[in-house]
């Protein structure tokens, strides 16, 4: 039951060109950090950012935080140099946990990336995350997510890029996100069908604390594993929204214990205080307890 669970509640982007942010990342309580070489870095600053990221990876010191590097896409002039930096870091034992590929629109792109990583000798521990941020990506989310079943792709996580989706579609970013909800749910479904995890997009207005809390709660309700972030102040409220509440875990442990009792061994359904519980509810409870335990075990 206790398959390895890696919490990905809070996933903070930082520009690869921002030395101060990269330095701070070692202290922040985010579950994962994304060192960005793509959207947050201007074309002229790409080589310098790549160098900063190389130095940052070599120095390490990220503790339990998962480290991800967002490279420029395979159709850009920077892609090969970006990948080479990751391969060099990996060869020195200081590689990131994953590489995030922007604007993935089809599973073939992930196979191409997988083949490049293999050719560069990247260790199998280096995973791939895929940005879903174009209309074609949302429409083909299932095909993209199913690529997670092909070990060549190393695909582990889908990451929604809601700013790019707004840009590409004309949909407005509104409180409650009615214009995008169908796409968000569709991507959660696709990720589960393929066996990948899935992270929500960012909230831009980082001084609007109440609005952000509402969007985190919505993301958790929709089934996302966590949310991508742009500012350190967003980490704690995001962690809170994606951490199973202690009352829920107490009840979950009670339910598991009840189904595990010898006298209930042959039963598929039980009632507690007028509410029906099937074995599937015990399965859900086990997953939530495993997540809570993994969170509690973090230093
Ligand atoms: N990661 C790590 N540290 C960050 C950070 C981030 N994403 N954003 C801000 N910080 C740090 C700042 O360096 C500053 O540290 P200091 O006070 O110790 O010097 C502190 O947090 C407070 O920052 P603040 O002054 O409130 O914000 P700012 O004006 O420096 O930066 C942004 C605002 C939006 C430019 C910045 O948060 C940012 O670049 N975010 C990420 C953008 C990104 O990566 N986008 C791509 C994906 S959507
Ligand atoms: Mg983008």
UniProtKB/TrEMBL annotation:
Q: Does the keyword Metal-binding apply?
A: yes
Top-rank taxon, per record: Bacteria
One GO term under biological process is:
oxaloacetate metabolic process
Q: Which GO terms describe its molecular function?
A: citryl-CoA lyase activity; magnesium ion binding
Q: Which UniProt keywords apply?
A: Lyase, Magnesium, Metal-binding
Q: What is its EC number?
A: 4.1.3.34
Which residues take part in binding substrate?
70, 133
Enumerate the spans annotated as HpcH/HpaI aldolase/citrate lyase domain.
9-232
Necessary cofactors? Mg(2+)
Where Mg(2+) is bound, by residue?
A: 133, 164
Matching InterPro entries, A to Z? Aldolase/citrate-lyase_domain, Citrate_lyase_beta/mcl1/mcl2, Pyrv/PenolPyrv_kinase-like_dom, Pyrv_kinase-like_dom_sf
What SUPFAM superfamilies does the annotation carry? Phosphoenolpyruvate/pyruvate domain
Family from the record:
Belongs to the HpcH/HpaI aldolase family.
Q: What is this protein called?
A: Citrate lyase subunit beta/citryl-CoA lyase
What organism is listed for this UniProt entry?
A: Ancylobacter tetraedralis
